[in-house]
Amino acid sequence: MTVKHIRGKFAEETKTKLVTVQVLGSNHRITSAYHRFQLIQMEPVSDRVKAITLKVAIHEGDESVTGTETVKFESSSGNLDERKKWVSLVLKDRQYDKKTPYRLVLRDAETGIEQQSVEVIIDRAFTDDF
What are the pLDDT digits (tens) for 48-66? Predict the structure, then answer.
């Protein structure tokens, strides 16, 4: 039996990483209490690319202004269309200012580390009576 110890550049290539998830679209403007975002898993799950579970919500600073949705990205398909997922978020019943910076935050459910955040504008002319 022969054992080889890998060093340098090749050692880095043998490490595993979590799949990358991106929010599709730009200039996200929310005009109602309910909004859908489309997310895409950038690479298929494999031996070196592991699935990830994300908690998705809209935040104003550190405070969530929507419910939090949990989404698992675990597709091993080579087809990009099969790795897209929709996330529906409902705004909390309160006043929103379209000049206030809000962010759609994708956070690793296991570690709590922010994977991505995207600016969103909440521009509700009137509030719904739910």
Answer: 999 999 999 999 999 999 9
Q: Closest by alpha carbon to 83, among 92, 91, 75?
A: 75
Distance CA 94, CA 29 (A): 17
The whole-angstrom separation of Cα 113 and Cα 104 is 14
Structure tokens of 76? 């091993």
Whole-model pTM: value is: 0.82
Q: What is the C-alpha separation between 123 and 100, in angstroms, rounded?
A: 10
Which contiguous run of DSSP H or E holds residue 117? strand 114-122
Using CA atoms, how far residue 119 sits from 34, 55, 81, 116, 122, in Å, is: 17, 17, 24, 10, 10
CATH fold of the domain at 34-122? Immunoglobulin-like (2.60.40)
Q: What is the per-residue DSSP string for 36-50?
A: EEEEEESS---SSEE
Task: Kindly list the domain boundaries of the chain, sorted by start residue.
Answer: 34-122
